[in-house]
Every structure is written in structure tokens, then in C-alpha cells.
Design a protein that fits this description.
The complex is a heterotrimer of chains A (about 375), B (about 325) and C (about 290). Helices cover about 45% and strands about 20% of the residues of chain A. With about 375 residues, chain A is an alpha/beta fold. Chain B is an all-alpha fold and about 325 residues long. The longest helix of chain B is centred in the first third of the chain and has 29 residues. Chains in contact: A-B, A-C, B-C. Chains A and B meet through helix 1, helix 3, helix 4 and helix 6 of A and helix 2, helix 5, strand 2, helix 11 and helix 12 of B.
């Protein structure tokens, strides 16, 4: 009886392997003049909102480019795989994409997964341009670039901005100690804050195991007499923190970084008054009147029935950056053996005017772009003025 | 004597299946027929076999539910990777990598003793929750330590894990665990599962044998962790949450309690399954969940048991003829 | 003063855990299975309210009633389809199936509602109570009161009614209960119906307290409530209440006075210590050993 169970399992295993083979082989022969761009991100699980936003943003840009005739006559195709935020799964996802004929990689959406993927793209010498993986090591190799800010830069910049514009006199910090993004920004913020003599009165943390109830942290912040709360984490957690802070009668200026973008939509109409006065440093503002951004937001909303977040904007820019690099390198044939080398070489020579700002890249793969300080007024982002 | 021979034949079949699969894979790679996707799954499959075989020792052979296997895996992974990071310049890879796995295993085994001594007197679901708690404590602590890289993860471990190396680890694990199960110690452990009181009254040292199974399992979980750590350039603590433990448990239950060969096959299936479902895109996890439920229900359904019974008769008949 | 306010916030967090743990422990006590999908039924309950109130514009009380009905139906269906065929299988098979159901509910919710958080309508709106300098949140009081009420009602139901007696009999010995003319299937169905109704109630209170619900919202509270139930002695109804409250208080006090980063580790550490001192939880029954 036991032996049979095993035999059945074995048959099942073989069938599955064959399915896997079939799935991989099928995509091998792609159209000659199609450049496949591959990326991975969490499409299921806790962080799925971020992966889906990247997938949507990239898809939108690719559809636009293809509708306009492609790049030098080459059509673009997006292949996007689920990596559930896990480095090991991201490597598998990358392998699937490689088998499918991916020529340019969008890396992975989240940092840990992306670091694991850098190792793989390095082996293949492929150009990798991650829209959103912000940890320093995500661009550790010459062929790796990113669209978003690097974590350490954001922390430093936030501290400088706070000191320069005198946002409050007593600073409280709340961060997610289990998130590399949040902790990375927190650490550099604290370093810079100490240099600039900012008065940080309390540092509070939460973790992924307990990120629904913030009463204790908020009580401590309230007792510390802080008048500004630095929140280096994403809008989903921020929504929970802000609603609870308001209920607890906390009177502070909420100060967020790029992950905070999306807070207005998250809080919704019902909690609109709570978002009043939230300050955030972000390269992308969905309510901007800039023609390019407005049209991106309009098309995105039409296609996916939601307002694009930072992630979607970064992905959108990533695709246009790849387009710019292809144009600069004068890529006319996707079978070009030098394709990767040419694209990587072009990356440091291009300038892209995207929805997240004007960008150029240095040899380290870091974008130079500026964050805008925006403040929320009447449920919309407006530029910050002293 | 007869029985002894039968079990050793069964073990040789297990080794033969493993070796055969290895040979087929190597052939596919050598002839360039293995896709990158398939190749990327080979080491994870080996890791899961080691994890499942070792957890089966606790869950299937000893009969105690442990939900903290990922905790031991993470301890081993961090210990092994830190060892490699410090010894990278000093030792050549061929010496350092096996040593790193040994270090991972030993550190995990030490944790196995530390956890096992107090908690193994608990039973059933209470033991399960304590092992789950232990796994989560380990994860919290790793995130908050500096030398482990904290939340950002431990980076820069050399990627030494190759398929042949991983396969050697699998073979060693199989040999050790199968021999343990079929030894005097193994029978003592099984007697605890079947009837602790009866075993105790026969003079079997309950705590010692429970701890033995637990520590051996922890050791191999640590080895698997170190192997995992050397397969990717980043090690994050969030990988080893209770979901990972449950994933391993699913493999063990699917493969059959106490059946090491079953664990081996189920590890292959459960590693390949989510990857093979990639073409389902958005419905991947949905299908995975449905398959999981369906397999469990199928195994328990009377019609399926009858079918298995019939097949077994057929199989046994054939084998009988062969022997004759 | 600070200590008191932290204690109260711990109580309010704990009352949510207690509410979830009551459902957990109820199902465990009778059906002897760890229903890992319990946390996800909470999520389904909360989403039902969101659909009714935010999308269909129904009044909140209608949403709440519908949510309970949907969850009861879901609970009974899950039991019939996924758990009933496994009644004679080893407990681990049932556990894995429950995990499968949990994944299934999560991925279904993600396919239907998307992956983001949805804002939850205010179902319970009770003004905060002011006690000197202390403010006690209204929803916290309501959660606490409802948990206590449910605890009493469940204890009475199991202790005094015919159905309760049948449940106790089934939990004691299924086969013997069957011989006494008790329908085991019906009894277990009722158990699941009650457990799922409790999950719906927990979902409503969870949603009103924290304001946002996503497809994966149920899993962490589910685990914490599992811990709470074991803490109090799994299967024991007052135990779940005490376990939940204790867990909330320990969690918040360790955040306040020891470390916010390590609070989870401390909670789990306390759990281990408690179980080592009392191997079946605070109010758990002794495990009988058959010789």
C-alpha cells in the first residue's frame, strides 16, 4: 500500500517535471523583432500590492511604446513572474524569464530578492534596471542600475530637509525593524540627524509580526512631546499608524519618504481629513499638473482602475529608460551579440525625463534625481512651501 | 534475519532512485537539454529533500509534531554563512564549504539540544506551538542582531552550492537517516511513537531517544540551511518564518509519515509544483492550494485506497513471481 | 499613569486576540483539529462587511448580520468538503488540509479584491470613555464586553443545552457518542457554524478597531490567537479569554518597557515558559495517558 502511494507520487513528479519542461520550451522561439523584458516581484502574498503596481506600470509603458511603433521598429514584450518577495523564488523566476528569452531584466521589485538576482544577471552579463529595489547592494555590479532612490540617500536627504526647513523641533521616529527598506532609511536618517543636531526625542519600532496595533509606540511618541513624526515605511502601514495616531490624539506633522506615496488613496474618502498636512519626500506626485505625469496617471487609472503609486511610476520610467538606452545604442536587431554591452554602455550616457523626474545614471548604477517635498492639502498633493 | 534483509533492499532502492535521478539530470545538463529554470530548481530540491528527510525523523519516526524546523535551518544557515565569510580568504573552497555545512549542522544541533531538553516533555499540539514559538524567537533575534546583517540580510556569501555538491549532501543524509531508522536506536525511537509507556516499561530511555531524534533532525536542518545560504548571495531572516516550517511539514505528510523515500519524492514534487504552475500566473497560488487539498483528500478517500490496494496486489503478485 | 494606559491598550489588543481565540478553541475542543483557516475566515467576514456597506451601500447592521451568515455558510461548507472526509485520517493530514484551505481563501480574496488594503466602515461607534487622565477607546470596551459575553454564552451553551451536551460527548469519544444516538456529523457541523460565526464577529471588531482589511490580514492574528488559545489551554473557553488578554497585555507591556523590536520574541518566550511550567496551558485539562 505504501509502496503504491510512492509509485503514484513518482508518476506525479515525472508528469510535473514534464509540464515544467513543456512550459519552458514553448516560449523559446520568439518573434525576431521582439525584445523581451523580464522582471519579478511579489504578485501574491503580503507585499503583492507593490509587485502588481510594478507589473502594471511596466505594462502600460510597453503598450504605449508598441502602439507608437516600438523602438527602432522593435516591439517590446513584458514577462513578469511572481517571486513572493523571496530571494530563492526570485532566482527561479529569473531562470524562467531567461528560458523565455529575456534580453533585459527589471531585476526584482523588493531588495532582498533583487540582490539574489544581481548574481544571476552578472553571470549572463544582462542589463538589469530595477524599478524599486532600494538597497545598496542591488546595483553592486556594473550591469545593474535602478530607477528609485537608494535607501541611504533617502534617510540623509530626509534629515537634511527636516533641518533646513525646520520641520518641528522635536523629532520622533517610528520604523519597521523587520524591513530592510525601513531600517536602512532609519539608520542613515539617525546618523545624519545626529550630525545636523536634530533633536530626536524617541525612536520606536514595529515588526512584521505585530504591525496592526501601534498603541504603545504612539503613546510613547505622545509622551515624548514630539511635534514631527518621521515614518520611513510604506503607505499600507502608514494608513494604520495614522488612523490610530489620530484616534490617540497625537498632534504631530507626519513626515514620510517615497513609500508613503499612495496614502491618500489608501486612506480613502472616509479618512480624508486625517491626511491633511502629511509631508512626504517623493520623486513622483500623482496629482501633479505636469502634462506627462497627468497623462500617465489618466491612462493608468483607465487601464487598472486605481491611482498609480510610486512603484508603478518607477516601473513606467524603467521601461522608458530601456527605450532611451536602446535608441542611444542604436539597437536595430535583438539578436545582436553585443546587445547587452551596448545597452549597459548607453545607460550612463542617457538622460530620461520621466514621471519620477529627470534622471541620469552614474557608473555605480545610481540615478541622479531629486525628491520633491509635497504636502497633502484637501486630499491632494501640493508642493511644499515654507 | 529475513526482515533485516528486506529493509536493506528497500534502502538500496531508495539510493538507486536518488542516484538514477541524479544521473538523468547530469546527463540532461551535459547534453544541454536542461533549461535554466530546471537547473535553478536542482539545489532547492536537494535542500528540501534534506529538510524533509530530517523532519520526518521527528514527525514520522518519533511521532512528535514540530513546527520549528525552519528555525534550525536558519541557525545553520547563518552559522555556515558567517563561517564562510570569515574563512573565505583563509581556506580553499573545497575545504571551507564542507566545513561550513558541518559548522551549520553542529550549531543547529547545539540549538536542538538547548530547545529539546526542556520542551520534549510537552506533547502533541503543545510541543508544536513551542517549536513554532522557538522558530519565531530565532527569527526576531536574527533580525535585531548586527553581525547577521539584520533586516537587510547577510550578503556576500560565496555561492559554492552546486548540484553535485548538494547531491552528495542528500546521499549522506539518506544514508545516515535510513541507517538510524533501521538501527537499534531507530527501533527505540519508533517504539516511543507507538506506545511511550510500553516502551518506557521495557527500559527504553524516553528522554534520551526523543532528544536523539530531535538533535539529528536539527543537525541536518542546519546542514540544509548552510547549503541554502551558499546557493544565494543573500540570506534574509524572513525566509525562515513559520510558513517555511509548514512547507517542509507538507512535504513530510505528503510523502508519508516515516517514509524517507516518500519524503524524497514529495520534496521533488513540492519544489517543482509551484514553479511548474507559473504558466497559471494569477491563479498559481489558488491552484497550488487546490492541489494540496485534493492530494490530502485523495489519499484518504476509500475509492483511492481500494485502487491502491488493487495495484498493490498486482505489484505484489509480480514481485512474487520474480522472486520465484 | 503611563503604565495604566499601556495596560489598557494591552487589554484592548488582547480582547481582539481573545475574540479570535474563542473560535479557535471552540473548534479544537470539539473537533480536535487545529483549524489554521480560522484567521482567514475572519478576513472573509470583514470583507463581507466591506462589500455590503462600502460597495452595496447597505446599513452597517445588515452588513454585520450578512457577514455572520456568510461565514457560517463558509465554515459549514469547508467542514463538509475538506475536513469531513478526513475524520478518520491522522490529525496531521487534517492540519495540512486546513493550511491548504487557508491558502485557498487568501488567494481567492486576492483575486477578487486585489492585494491592497481596503478601508473598513465604522460598525461599532462608541465614544471613548474618559477616566481622569486615562482615555479608553470605545471599540476596545465593546470588544472586551462582547468577548466576555461570548465566553459566558459559550460556556452556558456547552454546559446546559442538549447540543452542548452532544458536543461534549463528541469531544470525549466520537464512536461512543455515535452509539448513544448522537449525530457526530451534525454536531461537528454546528461546532464549525458557531466557530465561523465567532470568526465573523471577530472580523467585524478587528476591522472597526484597525480600520483596514487585506487578503492576508487574517493570518498573523490567526497565529497569535492560536498562541493565545494554547496559552490558556487549548479547548478551554475561559482559557482562550484569559490567554488572549494575557497575550495582549504581555505584548504591549514588553513593547513599552523592554523593546519594541523584540516584543514578539518576548511573547513567544513567555509562552514557552508558561508551557514548561504548566504543560497544558493555564486552564488546560491534563492529558490522560492510556496504559
Amino acid at each position: 500500500m505504501k509502496a503504491m502511494k510512492k509509485t503514484v507520487s513518482l508518476v506525479l513528479a515525472v508528469v510535473l517535471c514534464m509540464v515544467c519542461f513543456a512550459g519552458c520550451k514553448k516560449n523559446g522561439g520568439s518573434d525576431e523583432q521582439t525584445l523581451i523584458i523580464g522582471g519579478s516581484g511579489p504578485l501574491t502574498g503580503d507585499a503583492a500590492a507593490y509587485g502588481i503596481a510594478v507589473q502594471n506600470g511596466a505594462k502600460l509603458a510597453i503598450d504605449e511604446i508598441n502602439a507608437a511603433g516600438g523602438v527602432n521598429g522593435i516591439k517590446l514584450t513584458l514577462k513578469f513572474e511572481d517571486d513572493v518577495c523571496d530571494p530563492a523564488t526570485a532566482v527561479n523566476a529569473y531562470a524562467t524569464l531567461y528560458d523565455a528569452g529575456t534580453k533585459v531584466s527589471l531585476g526584482a521589485v523588493t531588495s532582498g530578492a533583487c540582490v539574489a538576482v544581481t548574481e544571476e544577471v552578472k553571470k549572463d552579463g544582462m542589463l538589469m534596471l530595477t524599478p524599486s529595489a532600494s538597497q545598496k547592494e542591488c546595483t553592486q555590479y556594473d550591469n545593474c542600475f535602478r530607477v528609485c532612490f537608494m535607501d541611504p540617500d533617502q534617510g540623509t536627504y530626509a534629515a537634511e530637509f527636516m533641518a533646513e526647513h525646520k520641520i518641528g523641533t522635536k523629532v520622533a521616529v517610528l520604523y519597521d525593524s523587520s524591513s530592510d527598506y525601513s531600517k536602512g532609511i532609519y539608520e542613515t536618517f539617525m546618523k545624519k540627524a545626529a550630525e545636523l543636531g536634530l533633536d530626536v526625542v524617541t525612536e520606536q519600532a514595529f515588526t512584521d509580526q505585530s504591525k496592526t496595533d501601534f498603541s504603545v509606540q504612539l503613546q510613547a511618541i505622545k509622551n515624548s512631546g514630539a511635534d514631527v513624526l518621521f515614518m520611513p515605511f510604506y503607505y499600507q502601514e502608514a494608513a494604520l499608524v495614522i488612523t490610530q495616531a489620530e484616534a490617540a490624539g497625537l498632534d504631530v506633522t507626519y513626515f514620510g519618504v517615497d513609500g508613503m506615496d499612495g496614502i491618500i488613496e489608501q486612506m480613502g474618502e472616509a479618512n480624508k481629513e486625517m491626511t491633511e498636512g502629511i509631508l512626504l519626500l517623493t520623486p513622483f506626485v500623482a496629482s501633479s499638473t505636469d502634462e506627462k505625469i497627468a497623462s500617465f496617471v489618466k491612462n493608468y487609472e483607465a487601464a487598472y482602475k486605481m491611482t498609480p503609486s510610486q512603484f508603478a511610476a518607477d516601473a513606467y520610467d524603467a521601461i522608458y529608460t530601456i527605450k532611451a538606452a536602446m535608441e542611444k545604442a542604436e539597437i536595430a536587431d535583438v539578436k545582436d551579440k553585443e546587445l547587452n554591452a551596448k545597452l549597459i554602455d548607453a545607460m550612463t550616457k542617457i538622460e530620461v525625463d520621466g514621471v519620477t523626474g529627470k534622471m541620469t545614471w552614474d557608473a555605480n548604477g545610481e540615478p541622479t534625481k531629486s525628491a520633491q517635498a509635497v504636502v497633502i492639502k484637501d486630499g491632494a498633493y501640493v508642493e511644499y512651501a515654507d | 534475519m529475513m526482515k533485516r534483509k528486506k529493509t536493506s533492499i528497500k534502502n538500496y532502492i531508495t539510493y538507486a532512485i536518488a542516484l538514477g535521478a541524479f544521473a538523468v539530470m547530469m546527463l540532461l545538463i551535459a547534453t544541454g537539454n536542461a533549461t535554466r529554470h530546471l537547473q535553478s530548481m536542482l539545489v532547492p530540491i536537494c535542500i528540501n529533500i534534506v529538510l524533509a528527510a530530517s523532519l520526518n525523523l521527528v514527525v514520522g519516526v518519533l511521532g512528535e509534531l514540530s513546527l520549528g524546523h525552519a528555525g534550525f535551518m536558519s541557525v545553520g544557515a547563518y552559522a555556515g554563512c558567517l563561517f564562510s565569510l570569515y574563512m573565505q580568504e583563509i581556506l580553499p573552497t573545497a575545504v571551507r564549504f564542507p566545513l561550513a555545512m558541518l559548522v551549520g549542522g553542529i550549531v543547529a544541533a547545539v540549538f536542538g539540544v538547548l530547545v529539546g531538553v526542556p520542551v520534549l516533555r510537552l506533547k502533541g499540539d503543545y510541543l508544536a506551538i513551542v517549536t513554532l514559538a522557538f522558530g519565531e524567537i530565532i527569527r526576531s533575534i536574527i533580525i535585531n542582531l548586527n553581525f547577521t546583517g539584520g533586516a537587510a540580510g547577510l550578503k556576500g556569501t560565496p555561492q559554492d552550492a552546486t548540484f553535485p555538491a548538494a547531491f552528495i549532501v542528500v546521499m549522506i543524509t539518506l544514508v545516515v537517516i535510513l541507517n538510524l531508522v533501521n538501527s537499534k536506536q531507530g527501533r527505540a525511537i519508533m517504539s516511543l511513537r507507538d506506545n511511550t509507556i510500553a516502551a518506557e516499561s521495557c527500559g527504553i530511555h524516553v528522554s534520551y531517544y526523543k532528544l536523539l531524534a530531535f538533535v539529528v533532525a536539527a543537525f541536518f536542518a542546519g546542514v540544509a540551511g548552510a547549503l541554502y545560504g551558499h546557493n544565494y548571495s543573500i540570506l534574509t531572516a524572513s525566509t525562515f518564518d513559520y510558513n517555511k516550517s509548514i512547507e517542509i511539514l507538507v512535504i513530510v505528510v505528503l510523502g508519508g509519515m516515516g517514509s524517507i523515500r516518500g519524503s524524497m519524492i514529495a520534496a521533488v514534487v513540492m519544489t517543482v509544483l509551484p514553479e511548474a504552475l507559473r504558466f497559471m500566473s494569477d491563479y498559481r497560488m489558488l491552484i497550488y492550494a487546490l492541489v494540496l487539498i485534493a492530494i490530502m483528500l485523495l489519499n484518504a478517500s476509500p475509492a483511492f485506497s481500494k485502487l491502491k490496494g488493487n495495484l498493490k496486489k498486482l505489484f505484489a503478485g509480480r514481485r512474487g513471481r520474480e522472486e520465484a | 499613569m503611563d503604565f495604566l494606559s499601556n495596560l489598557i491598550s494591552g487589554l484592548s489588543l488582547g480582547s481582539i486576540y481573545a475574540l479570535i481565540a474563542l473560535g479557535y478553541t471552540m473548534v479544537y475542543g470539539i473537533a480536535k483539529m487545529l483549524n489554521f483557516a480560522h484567521g482567514d475566515i475572519i478576513m472573509v467576514g470583514a470583507f463581507t462587511v466591506i462589500v455590503c456597506v462600502n460597495m452595496c451601500g447597505l446599513p452597517t447592521w445588515v452588513g454585520a448580520i450578512l457577514s455572520v451568515l456568510v461565514c457560517v455558510l463558509l465554515g459549514v461548507v469547508i467542514e463538509r468538503v475538506a475536513y469531513k472526509p478526513l475524520r478518520k485520517s491522522p490529525p496531521l493530514t487534517v492540519l495540512i488540509t486546513a493550511i491548504g484551505v487557508s491558502y485557498l481563501l487568501q488567494s481567492l480574496a486576492q483575486l477578487v479584491f486585489g492585494s491592497g488594503l481596503h478601508s473598513f466602515p465604522k460598525v461599532v461607534s462608541i465614544p471613548p470613555v474618559q477616566l481622569g487622565e486615562l482615555t479608553i477607546k470605545g471599540d476596545a470596551l465593546a470588544t472586551l464586553a462582547v468577548s466576555a459575553l461570548i465566553m459566558v454564552a459559550l460556556t452556558l451553551f456547552i454546559g446546559k443545552t442538549r447540543m452542548g451536551k452532544a458536543m461534549r460527548a463528541v469531544s470525549e469519544d466520537k464512536d461512543a457518542a455515535e452509539l448513544m444516538g448522537i449525530s457526530v456529523n451534525k454536531t461537528i457541523s454546528v461546532t464549525f457554524a458557531i466557530g465561523s460565526a465567532l470568526a465573523a464577529v471577530a472580523g467585524i471588531f478587528y476591522g472597526s478597531t484597525y480600520g483596514f482589511i487585506g487578503p492576508y490580514t487574517g493570518s498573523m492574528p490567526g497565529i497569535k490567537a492560536f498562541v493565545a488559545a494554547v496559552f490558556g489551554g487549548i479547548g478551554s473557553i475561559p482559557g482562550a479569554m484569559i490567554g488572549g488578554l494575557a497575550l495582549g497585555i504581555i505584548e504591549n507591556l514588553s513593547k513599552a518597557y523592554i523593546s519594541t523590536e523584540l516584543s514578539d520574541a518576548i511573547v513567544f518566550g513567555v509562552l514557552i515558559v508558561v508551557l514548561l511550567l504548566k504543560p497544558t496551558g493555564l486552564l488546560g485539562k491534563k492529558i490522560k495517558e492510556k496504559v
